[in-house]
Amino acid sequence: MRLSAKFAPFYWMAVLVFASCMSAVGQEPSEPLDVAFTSKLDGTEQRYMVILPPGFRDDTPHDLVIALHGHGSDRWQFVHDNRGECKGSRDAAAKQKMIFVSPDYRAKTSWMGPAAEADMLQMLDDLHGRYRIRDVIVSGGSMGGTSALAFAALHPECVDGVVSLNGTANLVEYPNFLEAIAESYGGSKVDKSEVYRQRSAEFFPDRLTMPVATTTGGRDTLVPPDSVLRLMEALKKQGSPAMSLHRPEGGHDTNYEDTRSAFRFVMENRAAKRSQQQPILSVSEQPMTIVCLGDSVTGVYYHTGGHRAYPEMLELALKAAHPKAIAKVINAGISGNTTRDGLNRLDSDVLKHKPDVVTISFGLNDMVRVPIEEYRSNLEQLIDRCREQKSQVVLCTPNAVINTDGRPITKLVEYCEVLRAVGRDKNVPVCDQYVAGEELKQRAPWTWRLTMSDAIHPNMDGHKRMAEELCRVISGANVSLDAVRPPLPILQRTRKQLADGAPLRIMAMEPVAAMVEAAIRQHHPDAKVELTTWAVAGKSLAQLEQEANTQVRAMKPDLVVLTIPAELAVANDEPTVHSLSWIMNWSLSFGLQEWDCVVIHPSVLTPAADPGKDSLIRKLVHAQHLALIDRASESESAAEIIQQWFKGDLSCPPQ
Questions:
Q1: CA 60 to CA 370: how far, in whole Å?
Q2: pLDDT tens per residue across span 400-409
Q3: 228-231: long-range contacts (C-beta < 8 A, 24 or more apart)?
Q4: Cβ pair 646, 520 in contact under 8 A
Q5: Between the N and C ends of the chain, which has fewer C-beta atoms within 10 Å?
Q6: pLDDT tens for each residue of 505-560
């Protein structure tokens, strides 16, 4: 469902009320969602099923189960089949409120060949973009059990647990379905020996350090158990958490109880590992002040829409996790700062607030201006001075970045390690934002890329994730801030100019410029509108990016309205992301937002060109924390949609 533009400004206030009531409703799993995507490997349409858990909430991270079907079946097997391994898998996921996903992964004769592997990676990336996902458990039966082990061996960085039901761990020796496997793998065992070996988990027990549970039958001739039994012995010898449920008289099936036991083992081991991560604060109803000291990634700048950054998001996260807590978070981040600057302004910007907790996040500027030993010394001095004032300290590594010559990742890693060493030496907890970002980058590289405003600065989606991680470290609570929208009303500068009777300077892309002026005059007939039309016809995204750079901040308008031509917004690649991000970046003031900025989706002007709810523009506008005027139905004209949106926002009471 898409939201009518008329009611969009009021929708998100309702969301906050609705979210608080979610725990009392939705106790049944959702109807399966059949999701289609275009494979980046070969351009074919591929599909996977999603079942959201009972009481699903978008303000809570969820674990994920991927259930891989057997030979001759497809994505529907684990969704509808009621035999033991299928129903047991669904019920195990539902009980733990996990998202349940069943992909085709090249359907009937997959065996986790190269194409299926590529689809799995792309699907995982897509899922991390759709939901806040914590742990990933890969499971399956028969061919699916084999594929679960194979994928975990191929990509251990993407997997937190494995449940393999009646699979094989050695495709080099496996004697059955040879023609189907050869077709999937691109050749026979002789022709493609390395492909078969790479997908044989028995050869790579050192990669399987996550919890692994397997079921096997002694009389299983379709998928003999020997290789899995050998693998499980190897895992136990190396100290990995492993459970082998072997039934000597069993055949090629797993009953409901054994399926549930296998999942229970993996889930309990994951829960035990998480329970070892103790929070640093016991959040109570007593007032608590947190000051976040740092550089431009901490401060409020255009990268996050100019209203808030991760410190402000941290306050929302703590209140969501602990509704009765009285937590005040103060942002003390300044662009360009290093640990030297942090020391110079510690008294005036931090300690004067008498904080209970001080978070310290420097490094991206230090790595280019402050020698590493001085960086270490400065961090130690910051800690000592905070402790003298009875403030607890949390050190934060810098966020993960896109590699550049100016800030190479290899050098950033060195500074991160120094910060961690200071934390160990001074007994100070560390919120490892760099590791959290790198883990997302490894599991979902495109999702991670869309959290970045530029090479080093996260956008608001990145800041939300940083706040979630910091909230987890501080309070032990896992929350999701994905549903948090920009503060209402959107048009704060516009409303002020109209209320004061002052000139309203608008810079708007064609062909919506006249529609925007008409929409404002519909609500304020006597408005003193000074309209500058931004011509876009015949220009590339790179040209629009350059014009945004040279024109918008120089003009300092009261309102900027962007609409990207539909034909320019179809690609889902790095150049398009870069240009779209910087068109928005340059359309905002450098620091705290001085003027309003609204984006109109191309579908408002060209309904037939709408690529769907997950279009790149929608993702980037959400990530930047800007307002999007979108199409709700094909019957409305562009002028009507724009008029309704402006009327709604200009009438919206302040939050």
A1: 39
A2: 999 999 999 9
A3: 228/149, 228/164, 228/167, 228/168, 228/169, 228/202, 230/169, 230/170, 230/202, 231/149, 231/169, 231/201, 231/202, 231/205
A4: yes
A5: N
A6: 999 999 999 999 999 999 999 999 999 999 999 999 999 999 999 999 999 999 99
